[in-house]
Amino acid sequence: MNEMTDGHTVKRYNCEMNHLHGLVILIGDLVREQLYRAAQSLETEDVVLAEAVIERDEEVNDLDVQASDEIVHLIAKRQPVARDLREILTVGKIVTDLERVGDEARKIAKMTLHFYDGQSAGPNPQIVRDILKMVEMVDEMLNMSLQSFDGPDLDIALEVIKMNDELYSDFKSALRHLSTFIMEDSRSVGHVVETVLGLRAIERIGGHAKNIAGYVLFLVKGVDVRHANLEVVAEQVNS
Q1: For residue 130, which of 49, 174, 212, 215 is within the disulfide window of CB 3.0 to 4.6 Å?
Q2: Contact of 87 with 128, CB cutoff 8 Å
Q3: All domains of the chain, ordered by start, with CATH?
Q4: How far apart are CA 112 and CA 233, in angstroms?
């Protein structure tokens, strides 16, 4: 391969990677919007908005398939190694987690339908209070995790991983809060159970944001920290 051809190949590869990078940001923005609209549908009791969120999940799925196809094609054509291979693997893993975020947002939209698309009365607004509060936190985690990938920025990635511990504490606190409604009125059991599932969906979204942050560390450092404790992760960031 002569120098001119080699330069052309590198330029084409960079363009392809930039396109994949942009696709990750596009999917990230889309699932964040899905999450926001799902929470809004729950807060405003808007079943039409909830149905729109559920329907739009197909768009997320289509982008997931598109990204997977492009990754397979790129690996087959370029046969990347070292940092280039890590970058492609990172993109694939992030897209998978973002697609799952879309699935969890859809679950929250379905809660709206279960609560308000029928003849029975909806839940006490206090029952769903913690869901709306936690959505704000996981949206921030998602935004920061995407920023850490876009940089890449290891300090932001570490902050997301730290926030996941705080999110889990909020999750347990919300469960304790819900238990008081059952003790006060056994008729609220159905609403409480549905809300627990919604809280679990949000907690999982936080886990996906943490995963994305971990993938950024893998990209930059070449170390898998998904199952490492916070001290080990911090050491990797600062090494």
Answers
A1: 174
A2: no
A3: 3-238 (1.20.58.220)
A4: 38
